[in-house]
Known about the structure:
Blueprint lengths: L7 E4 L6 H12 L3 E3 H9 L3 H8 L1 H18 L4 E3 L8 H9 L3 E6 L2 H10 L10 H15 L4 E4 L6 H11 L7
Helix pairs in contact: 1-8, 2-4, 3-4, 4-5
Bound molecules: shikimate-3-phosphate.
Amino acid sequence: xxxxxxxxxxxxxxxxxxxxxxxxxxxxxxxxxxxxxxxxxxxxxxxxxxxxxxxxxxxxxxxxxxxxxxxxxxxxxxxxxxxxxxxxxxxxxxxxxxxxxxxxxxxxxxxxxxxxxxxxxxxxxxxxxxxxxxxxxxxxxxxxxxxxxxxxxxxxxxxxxxxxxxxxxxxxxxxx
Length: 176
Ligand code: S3P
């Protein structure tokens, strides 16, 4: 694949900062970005918590897969930030691979993610309490590990710097 066609998906646990890194990355590279959760909400004309509450998690996961395909098939987006669960299904990982996307895991500690989850305004229906969130975090590490690239993002790491690193190392963009 030519460098100018390269597309990237960002994955990682809730609260790690995928959307923020994607925004910085899009700013730095000028490549179009799409946030899968935002795209789902626009297309469904309702918020994710409402989708899950009304139609259930299985329904949400099937919509997530359909919309992921749609983004990859129909849009020019080269920076795609996934919801934290999207990468954890084999079907989605295979779709991402079939479109030759580079996958990036934003890796962090549970405490870092948990702090962001607690202080965020975003409602996350899969996070009921700290204990169950930690269990989910631990269960998912093996899936996230399958991503092509890993970048550590922690309180000491400025997300703009992480985006810069990704832009330089993956998109080979020169940034002064
Ligand atoms: C989910 C993460 C959320 C959203 C949904 C399910 C998950 O996205 O897709 O609530 O299963 O981890 P963020 O990772 O952006 O919070």
